[in-house]
């Protein structure tokens, strides 16, 4: 359970949105749970400080998650690290749009950007992260990337 989030909030991921890599799937569960918490807080009309707190947790967690994945890619000399990092940058850009809408006090824009973020994150998991997880599952010697 993530501090500050209601119990039972985490989305049960669809099988096709899993990577079958235990650590990545656990991190994705938290990340998607934070997105859902943000979405629900906005829908329920919770106070700005509550929404701001969840948004800040999502931003911090997303940055840590992406750093973790990128480190793992480097440790395993993942050949498409550049493309994967560009996808992470795109997701961070979408997260900034959520922040911008919230700061501007535009709840419709914020809700729309959260919906887009959730879709992009799930699509990212189904494509880039699953491809990376399959790469990790292949037997090979671990090579440190220079």
Automatic annotation (TrEMBL):
**Boundaries of every Hemerythrin-like domain copy:** 22-135
In Gene Ontology terms, what is one molecular function of this protein?
oxygen carrier activity
Coiled-coil positions = none
Q: Which UniProt keywords apply?
A: Iron, Metal-binding, Oxygen transport, Transport
Q: Does the keyword rRNA-binding apply?
A: no
Gene3D superfamilies for this protein: Hemerythrin-like
Could you name the domain of life of the organism this protein comes from? Bacteria
CDD domains per record: Hemerythrin
The answer to whether UniProt assigns keyword Mitochondrion to this entry is no
Tell me which family the UniProt entry assigns to this protein: Belongs to the hemerythrin family.
What this protein is called in its record is Hemerythrin-like domain-containing protein
